Amino acid sequence: MADTARTSDAAPLAGLRILDLTTIMLGPFASQQLGDYGADVIKIEAPGGDSTRRTGPAPEAGMAAAFIGVNRAKRSIVLDLKQSAARDALFTLIDNADVLLHSMRPQKMAALGFSPEALLARNPQLIVVAAHGFGEDGPYAGRPAYDDIIQGLCGLAGLSADQGGEPSYVPSVIADKICGMFATQAVLMGLVRRAREGSGVYVEVPMLESMVHFTLIEHFYGAHFVPPQSEAGYSRLLTRWRRPYRTTDGYVCIVPYTDQHWRLFFGEAGIPECADDPRFIGIGSRTLHIDALYRLVGERIALRSSAEWLAACDRLDIPAGPLNRLADLERDPHLMAVGMFPTVDDAALGQLKLVAAPMRFNGKRPSVTMPPRLGEHTDEVLAEAGIDAAARHALLASGAAIQFHPRTAASAISGVTL
Fold it and tell me: Edge to edge, what strands does the sheet with 245-246 contain?
């Protein structure tokens, strides 16, 4: 178990140790959330490190922007799992772990000797969470999967074509991040189950199935019924007129939703007669005529400035907000007030700005910590696991394990991925 002195007494996951064998975005996002809430997350990296250590601006080799975004609240060790000594060391770490989270294909894990059966035989109370592309009992099992592939397969990329455009990807690694949240949920469910039943569990988090679940929550729509009552796809979201509305000087996001919202909006927009238009009375009728409704809204909003509309919506209690670009977020008054962009100071990199965890416990937001250098904690973590000094020296001397040193880290990590 983790040394609870390392975490805040208020941290809800303090005392839990998580072995993180994930890379890129999905798994690291999941484990970062767990680390933010107090778990001792041990990031186990190959000698070259997570590829995100080379993705984006990198004032220091191995500390690139993409890595920093999803790897705070962790310790890093390097094990070359191609070597038997490193695999033995990992099994020793597993003996005292609560969770092992990995994003390798199941076949690769089994080939290394870390099948779910082997892991649970070694530690019967272990929670094993595997995040990979496809469920193990389907024809896609074992295929490689990245965010773009899953966006296409789950129907998400095709929704833009249903709006009258071309198929396109959401400009975010949304499948990785959503599935990362499912993986976090899987860890927590496993821990609850262990608390009740006293034994570990293997939980599979397949990306395709997770994203189909996510996409179809609203878009399965009339296909819920047998026979179908309509085609799949929620029309309010698929109209091409659903978008930020242009004003005389910018854009605003306005969502009248209830009957009262619409009556007030029509009055403010100078078209009060629309409140009695049969097409717009009640949510059912509005949904059937959503193209005409949203087009009309866009035409009226275009006649005033953003500030005028935001003030009017505030007065009428109609949900509205400005359109923020990425560069605007740090200046948003609400995000500034709630401390969404804390900073950490690092001796080598200077000041770093991070994005805080969103949840607070008893009014307190989890503190942020510096993401680890590659192998920064190797010797420390192996010693905590009970591996003696001579055995640790042998692991380091053979390259089965690597301890961080600025020179060796810089030589081990080369290239930048843009």
Answer: 245-246, 251-254, 320-322
Query: Helix, strand, or coil here: 364?
Result: strand
205 and 77 both lie in a single domain: yes
Residue span of the structural domain in which 264 resides: 245-322
pLDDT in tens, the chain (418 residues): 444 334 445 689 999 999 999 999 999 999 999 999 999 999 999 999 999 999 999 999 999 999 999 999 999 999 999 999 999 999 999 999 999 999 999 999 999 999 999 999 999 999 999 999 999 999 999 999 999 999 999 999 999 999 989 999 999 999 999 999 999 999 999 999 999 999 999 999 999 999 999 999 999 999 999 999 999 999 999 999 999 999 999 999 999 999 999 999 999 999 999 999 999 999 999 999 999 999 999 999 999 999 999 999 999 999 999 999 999 999 999 999 999 999 999 999 999 999 999 999 888 888 899 999 999 999 999 999 999 999 999 999 999 999 998 755 555 555 444 4
- pTM of the model as a whole: 0.93
Amino acid at 74: K
Domain end: 295, 322, 349, which one?
Answer: 322
Between β-strands 401-402 and 127-132, what pairing exists: parallel, antiparallel or unpaired? Answer: unpaired
- Among residues 272, 301, 322, the one where a domain terminates is 322
Residues with Cβ within 8 Å of 287's Cβ and at least 6 positions away in sequence, in order, are: 235, 236
Say how many domains are in the chain: 2
Burial of 48 (0-12, 13-18, 19+ CB in 10 A): middle
